[in-house]
Amino acid sequence: MSVFEAPDYDGHEQVVFVNEPAAGLRAIIAIHNTNQGPALGGCRMWPYASEAEAVRDVLRLARGMTYKAAMAKVKLGGGKSVIIADPYTQKTPELLHAMGRWIDGLNERYITGEDIGTNPMDMAEIKRETRCVSCLREEDGGYGDPAPMTALGVLQAIGAGVERAFGKTDLNGVHVALQGVGNVGFNLCRLLSEAGARLTVGDVLADNAERAVAAFGAEAVEADAIYDVEAEVFAPCAMGSVLNDDTVGRLKAKVVAGAANNQLAEDRHGDALAERGIVYLPDYVANGGGLICCEAEWYRLDRDAVTDKVKGIRRTCVEILEAAADQGVATNVASDRLAEQRFRGG
Ligand code: NAD
User: What are 330-334's contacts with CB under 8 Å, separation 24+?
Assistant: First the structure.
């Protein structure tokens, strides 16, 4: 198969295919763009059914990181890596060390981190072979779990959306329907509750939803019923592709902002939301707080400055909303254009 002609190839700077049978390692590292700094993006471990599927995933994810980094205003570019293996049965220290050596060979052009199928302990193993790792635990020299900062960023996006949709500058009394009370979702529930918002939550794991009921007096609904809640805001914090042909028409909310990656099943669902008068804050902008944390960890920036920078996500959201209105396009399109101006500007 040809990479340069693959549908998801978008001028990526470098795509590295790794094969080290002795360590059980088959992997692909994709560097999309380094105009703003070294390419940062997680390492996904997944038993892809085919090489083509792995190539598609790594190209798409690396490109997405460039856009996210540009809008988070971090000195980083976009990259990603995938290891073609089952994380439950095939992950070994030898495999992770081998991956670390290949990453190290890229001379700080790519910095890895955790993703689906890998965790902070795996990053500590990779770090034995390279310093190009982020999302490390504090005991391993990192800045710890980025989820609280991701949640703080989503809160900014919700604030900007509520102001645009309702002319309200705070979240007191605003009803938020939150999908997925995991690591980010629970932190977001706390921040929303402190801001005086009313919460309805849905999670496929009832115990996770119950945590928000017990801690913040949230109301819990069946996971699939979350789309139908009569709330002002819908905050997707679970899976991707949740804004699709089946769900957009069901939403009662006038604002959508959440942590989940790739919320739009297809770009046209951004138009579908706009046509329904729903203010959509693009996922990769709303959830950029974690990346701001990773930037601080990599460059050893002052940790207190991270909070201020994450709060800047609100201003970025306002910029996107204004650009979308001026250009007469959906917010996801306006956001992509702004990101492209930034990273192509060099
Ligand atoms: P997590 O695994 O801790 O939480 C996900 C939660 O969603 C779990 O409680 C899970 O039970 C629930 N869930 C799964 N499928 C669901 C469904 N169909 N309906 C309702 N609930 C469902 O993950 P997380 O770290 O909180 O991340 C949440 C999302 O945000 C993910 O898409 C992740 O990629 C994205 N994200 C996370 C970070 C971060 O800092 N952790 C940063 C950027 C983006």
Answer: 330/270, 330/271, 330/273, 330/274, 330/280, 331/270, 331/274, 331/279, 331/280, 331/281, 331/282, 332/264, 332/267, 332/270, 332/280, 332/282, 333/267, 333/270
Averages of pLDDT over runs of 10 residues in the chain (346 residues) are 91 98 98 98 96 96 97 98 98 98 98 95 97 94 94 98 98 98 97 98 97 98 98 97 98 98 96 98 97 97 94 98 98 98 86
**With respect to CATH, is domain 147-288+314-344 assigned 3.40.50.720?**
yes
* Sheet architecture: strand order including 255-256: 219-221, 198-202, 175-179, 233-236, 255-256, 279-280
Ligand 1 mean position to 180 CA, how many Å? Answer: 6
Give the CATH fold of the 3-140 domain.
Rossmann fold (3.40.50)
263: CA distance to ligand 1 center in Å? 12
Q: If DSSP codes are grouped into helix, strand and coil, which group holds residue 15? A: strand
How is the chain split into domains, by residue range?
3-140, 147-288+314-344
CA dihedral for 283, 253, 162, 151, sign (positive or negative): negative
CA 10, CA 27: separation in Å to the nearest integer?
A: 20
Which of 44, 150, 190 for mutating ligand 1's site (highest number of atoms within 8 Å of CB)?
Answer: 150
Assess whether the region 3-140 and the region 147-288+314-344 belong to the same CATH fold: yes
What are the φ/ψ torsions at residue 104 (nearest 5 degrees)? Answer: -65, -35
Length of the chain: 346
